[in-house]
Amino acid sequence: MPLKTWIDEIAALCCPKRVHLCDGSQEEFDAIAAEMVRSGVLVPLNPHKRPHSFWCHSHPDDVARVEENTFICSQKKEDAGPTNNWKDPLEMKQILKKLFHGCMKGRTMYVIPYCMGPLHSPFSRIGVEITDSPYVVLNMKIMTRMGKTALERLDAASFIPGVHSVGVPLQPGQKDVPWPCNPMNRWIVHFPEERAIWSYGSGYGGNALLGKKCFALRIASTLAHKEGWLAEHMLIVGITNPAGEKKYFAAAFPSACGKTNLAMLTPTLPGWKIECVGDDIAWMHFGADGRLYAINPEAGYFGVAPGTSFKTNPNAMRTIAHDTIFTNVALTEDKDVWWEGMEILSASSPPLTSWLGTPYDPASGKPAAYPNARFTVSAKQCPIYDKEAENPQGVPISAILFGGRRASTVPLVFESFNWNHGVFLGASVSSETTAASKGEMGRLRHDPFAMLPFCGYNMGDYFAHWLEMGRKSSSEKLPRIYYVNWFQKDNAGQFLWPGFGDNSRVLKWIFERTDHKGEAIDSPIGRLPKTLDLHGLQGINLDRLLSVDRNAWLGECDELFGYFKLFGDRLPQGLMEELKALRGRLEQ
Ligand code: GTP
Ligand code: SPV
Ligand code: MN
């Protein structure tokens, strides 16, 4: 459908006060930001401390992705699979029609054309988001290539349409609230066959910035399945050894499990260098040479603030030194930002405004920043932004890492025996839940490939697609696959591994393995490092970090047999064979 026709149709349905087609210019950003400052939604930060930056906080019940309210509306329920919420597309359209009817009354309807991926990449795709949230416009400007440039590339036949509303129409004369949203009535809806997205009731992150999880993962994963490529919840990182040799790795960890941190890591090993291509999403295609190439469809970072410090992630701290939007962090008296883990506050520190916008009481036992508080910032501001990040062909991937948050059982790192075994490792990922999604925290759940909330089709078919991808190239050209776990804890609940910059020690072993160097020992679960470079680190119990508890792993097998059963005949035989082989090795 031509863009103009679609815009008119949506405007007729939603009844906005006016329509604004975004050009993506800095002037437009500044004008919208200024208006939001006037209405008290954004607070400008201290220009001497954090120039051109803003603080805002959301409604206390609109702070993360809402997975229970996220739907994949394929024609057939089986095509959404057992891990997705599903509703019949016709039935869902009836619901949406009612919800969106007049939903933008009294508001501006913004039309945001955007490009996912470098502007001139053959792998990039165009989307258009219609939204009644100016906050979304500002964030989309940072997170995507947005406006005129994207519009020029727009092909009427193939843009991905997305309609978003906060779900709070204004009656004539009614005063708006700072963060309009509709927590009792939230719907994040995808029609994979039509390639359309509808989102209602939330203004936060992945619920509302439709280019990110809705398009670049849920819709893109269905396109990738059809067209023979991969759309993944993965960071992309360049790693250079002291001899100057460079490789690229991709890594899938569940939400708030360390992608941004690994993507911007400052190695504690001398002579090693890390450069960042992307921190959340990778689109990967085979090149003519049989290697897998990755582009980052995004242009910015929507990163977890708590835990980020000059100690843990100095590159992120430098990235967010200016031109950044902060959502749900705490505000200092001199109008700068603060969050748990940033730096220690002393008893004499001036008082904070909490993420709720009220004076913070340290005795409350509650955090000053919401655990899923985020910064939105352009990738270009990252001091280690990789030179090849805008390469239209992408970067060649030598290793793929899977991982999760596991207090026990899963060793620090191990290598798969081959591609199929690596796909099994991806399928077997479990992780403790985090604040990135609404619901209970710290509960262990299956999160295959870190894609549980993001796979737009039947996860069994997705597993089969990964196995199929391995048949498209030869084993020496395919990336090697690893499993990592930075999060093992001792009996006192302390992390056994220092993590962050010290993860470079694990990356070094992987780098050397992909060069057919670096020694490994076979175990039933995979190949473990014979040793790791621990120079300069004290008190590390490497034996424990790399140990394999057979009984615990037999328990994992039982758990996985049960999980795989969920997929019925959509589970590829190859995965069941890997699981049986693992049990066989453990029982030997
Ligand atoms: P999404 O943006 O939600 O997809 O998350 P992400 O995978 O990019 O997670 P991120 O790197 O933002 O990390 C989330 C939290 O985990 C932060 O509070 C980090 O400080 C913490 N974290 C990251 N890496 C490590 C690590 O190696 N060890 C430990 N202990 N914590 C880590
Ligand atoms: C995630 O939850 O994995 C994120 C943040 O990257 S959001 O964009 O809100 O989904
Ligand atoms: Mn993510």
Q: How far apart are the termini?
A: 60 Å
Quaternary assembly: single chain
Q: Largest beta sheet, briefly?
A: 9 strands, mixed
Going by helix content, strand content and strand pairing, the class is alpha+beta
Number of strands: 28
> Class of the largest domain, according to the CATH hierarchy?
Alpha Beta
What is the fold named in CATH at topology level of the largest domain? Phosphoenolpyruvate Carboxykinase, domain 3
Spatial extent as radius of gyration: 23 Å
Bound molecules: guanosine-5'-triphosphate, sulfopyruvate, manganese (II) ion
The overall pLDDT average reads 97
Summarize this, please?
The protein is α+β, with helices and mostly antiparallel strands and 588 residues long. The chain is built from 16 helices and 28 strands.
Question: What does this 3D model show about the protein?
Answer:
By secondary structure, this protein is an alpha+beta fold. The protein has three domains: 3-41 and 68-226, Phosphoenolpyruvate Carboxykinase, domain 1; 231-300 and 386-548, Alpha-Beta Complex (Phosphoenolpyruvate Carboxykinase, domain 3); 301-377, Phosphoenolpyruvate Carboxykinase, domain 2 (Beta Complex). Helix content is 27%, strand content 21%. The strands form six sheets. Strands 11, 12, 13, 14, 15, 16, 22, 23 and 26 form a nine-stranded mixed beta sheet that branches. Strands 1, 4, 5, 6, 7, 8, 9 and 10 form an eight-stranded mixed beta sheet that branches. The chain has a five-stranded mixed beta sheet with strand order 2-3-18-21-17. A hairpin with a 5-residue loop joins strand 19 (330-331) and strand 20 (337-338). Helix 2 (26-38) runs antiparallel to helix 5 (134-143), helix 11 runs antiparallel to helix 12 and helix 15 runs antiparallel to helix 16 (573-587). The relative contact order is 0.12. Bound molecules: guanosine-5'-triphosphate (GTP), sulfopyruvate (SPV) and manganese (II) ion. Manganese (II) ion binds next to loops.
